[in-house]
Structures are given as C-alpha cells and as structure tokens.
Specification:
Helix content is about 35%, strand content about 20%. The chain is of the alpha/beta class and about 300 residues long. Strand 4, helix 2 and strand 5 form a beta-alpha-beta unit.
C-alpha cells in the first residue's frame, strides 16, 4: 500500500456463480455453436466489485444474500479467502443462489443471462442488520442486481450519515429522483446513461449533454464509462474524457466491475476523481486481458507497476 491510508468500503449487491463458454462467435437465435471451452467462476456485480476493492487494498464489508446450496457455501468460502468481511452475507432458505450464463466470442464480446435467485430477495430488513458497517465505512458502493427498494434504502441511510455513495447503475434501469439526489457519484455506461436521461450518446457533445443532465438531477459527480475510449468525467471541476489504457482484450466480462471497485478504493485513499479514474482504468485494462470475472481481477501490486 506504500503508506497510503487503507479505506473501508461497504459493498451492497449481488453474488452469482458464472458459467462461461468461450466460443468463436456468439450464437444467433436457434443456432447451436460447437467447440466452446467451459469455465465456472465466482461472479455477480456486487461480489466482483467487493473482490476488486479487497485485492486493491481496501477493507471491504460485503452485504449480499445467497441460497442455502452448494453455490452459496462456495461463495461464502471464496469471499472469506479474499479477506472480505462476510458477517452480513445472508442465507436465503427459500431461493437458490444466483447464477449467470455467459458466452464470450473471439473478439471478447459477451452475452449474459442472469437468474437472480436469492439476490432478488436482499431486502431493506436485511441491510438494516448491517447498520454498524454503514456507520464505520468511508464509501458505499452499489449496483442494480438487487431490489431497487433496497438500493434506495441504503442510499438514503448513507446520506443521513454523510457517507459518500457510489452507484454503478447496471444493469440499466430508470432511477428515482430521491435516489439520484442521495448519490455522491454515478458511473453509467453509454446505454445506462441513455436510460437515465433519454439522451442517446453518439459523440462528445451528447456525452457531455447526458452527464450534465444527470448532474442537474442532483448527482454531484458523473462518470460515463466509454469502453475502449475511456471515461468521461463531469463535476464542478472536470469536464473531460480520460483515455482508456490500450491493451489486447480477451474477455470484457467484469471490466466495469473492476473499474468501479478500483475507483472507490482510490477515492477512499484521498485521490482526486481524475486520479481515481486513471487508477481504475489501469485496473480494468489488466482485467480484460484475462478470462473470467473474479479470476481476472488484478492485485494492487499489478496495478501499481502496470505499463500498457
């Protein structure tokens, strides 16, 4: 950590088991593609972001819900092995653990189908049991693979405590005015930004227009992720695009999750938003050169010495 302050991150979100098939091309409707390679990895946007933050140097508390099944047991063991605080990994006796079916083609493009299972039953009553974690954390990080009522509850409680809440609004969904006003930072991609604002992003002007529209809705800071083109930052001090690191991608499955996990680590250490984006860009660049979700997430030493 090179003497840096170690941040405390509270991640509230999903955990899945990813079943990945790597193949030459993604199947069209009704098509069967032979010759793929199968991998099974821990995943889920929440878990991916929690693991990323932990590997990159933060103290991480993860609030999630798994089924009472072999996938849930394995998930809890794997999270603990990453050094993540699992006191608030709740067990659902009535729903299975979440799973994701992922296909990845030769160009690193993917399609994903998720069966949410217990993730869809992570409720405000569960999160209320993690009040001490909310009191102690520096930053709260969430996504949209758990119920919106839970996300809104956590954001409101964090705002009451003066905590910084970062929302990665994926998968894309409409967001309430109350939720947006509770956020310190939001990190949509182009599609998600369009869902929030109604503005279709196709050039630099529309990127800026969408980001300013989101800020007008009450969010202090906006980062629109642009894939291989980088990330557009918009707040009171910045209005610019930070270019992405250039690497040869083989699988982009968890790139956004790595970016968000790295981003909150850097912010918790006192870095500026621009510095945090550059750090997150390095981490996500490393991840896309590897297969899998959590298996692709780099460690802090790798990011610190990364040269594209």
């Amino acid at each position: 950590m090179n003497g840096l302050r170690k941040g405390k991150i509270l991640v509230v979100g999903s955990t899945n088991t990813d079943m990945v098939v790597r193949t030459e091309h993604l199947p069209r409707p009704g098509e069967t593609v032979l010759g793929g390679t199968f991998l099974m990895n821990p995943g889920g946007k929440g878990a991916n972001q929690a693991v990323a933050a932990a590997r990159l140097g933060a103290d991480v508390i993860f609030v999630c819900k798994t089924g009472n099944d072999m996938f849930g047991i394995t998930t809890r063991q794997q999270l603990a092995q990453e050094g993540i605080d699992t006191r608030f990994v709740f067990i659902d006796d009535h729903n299975p653990s979440g799973v994701a079916l992922i296909s990845v083609d030769s160009r690193a493009e993917n399609t994903i189908v998720v069966a949410s299972g217990a993730n869809a039953n992570l409720l405000p009553l569960d999160v209320a049991k993690a009040e001490t974690a909310l009191d102690d954390c520096d930053i709260v990080l969430m996504q949209l693979e758990t119920p919106m009522t839970t996300i809104e509850y956590v954001a409101a409680e964090a705002a009451k405590r003066g905590k910084r809440t970062v929302l990665n609004p994926a998968p894309g969904a409409a967001l309430s005015p109350q939720l947006l006003k509770s956020l310190y930072l939001i990190t949509p991609n182009e599609t998600e930004a369009e869902i929030i604002t109604g503005i279709r992003i196709h050039n630099a002007e529309t990127e800026a227009e969408a980001a300013r529209r989101i800020r007008a809705m009450g969010v202090q800071n906006v980062i629109i992720t642009l894939g291989s083109r980088g990330a557009y930052i918009c707040n009171d001090r910045f209005d610019e695009t930070v270019p992405a690191q250039k690497v040869r991608a083989v699988d982009t499955t968890a790139a956004g999750d790595v970016f968000n996990g790295a981003l909150v680590v850097a912010l918790s250490e006192g870095k500026s938003l621009e510095e945090a984006v550059r750090f997150a860009s390095r981490a996500s660049a490393i991840s896309v050169t590897r297969m899998g979700a959590q298996s692709s997430i780099p460690y802090r030493s790798e990011v610190d010495r990364f040269v594209p």
